Amino acid sequence: MRDTANRMATASDNRSRGEAVGALISASVLVAANLVTLYVLYLAMAISPDGSWDVRQSADNVQLLSAVSGVLAVAVAVLTAFILATRWLRSRWWLTAPAVMLLCSAVRWLFPS
Question: Model's pTM, two decimal places?
Fold first, then answer.
């Protein structure tokens, strides 16, 4: 009887350890993906024309980087939804960062100059 109880306790410990490792890896992947998206969004926000001759080119670059950061934000949101569905991470707050970055990308894409 004790042997069965010990096996069940060991299986439970292994499962909780596996969930902790899964949560750590998932959080690391999401933080890295959000940072990459944030960097591309920063580039879109930081671009400004060098002079009157550069207005159109810089606006095109802003729109391109805004679109790329928007696509990345959607991809990160899908990845976050998958990770939340697997219950490795439980907080829905993980979806806030991609949503805010998607909103900022859309605003910057609409107003490139």
Answer: 0.82
- Pairwise CA distance, residues 3 & 9, whole Å: 10
- Exposed, middle or buried by CB within 10 Å (0-12, 13-18, 19+), for 98? buried
Contacts of residue 61, Cβ cutoff 8 Å, sequence gap at least 6: 47
User: Do 69 and 37 contact (CB within 8 A), yes or no?
Assistant: yes
Residue appearing with tokens 């805004």? 66
Q: What is the pLDDT along the chain (113 residues), one digit of tens a residue?
A: 555 555 544 545 555 777 888 889 999 999 999 999 999 999 999 998 888 888 899 999 999 999 999 999 999 999 999 999 988 888 899 999 999 999 999 999 999 87
d(CA 63, CA 107): 10
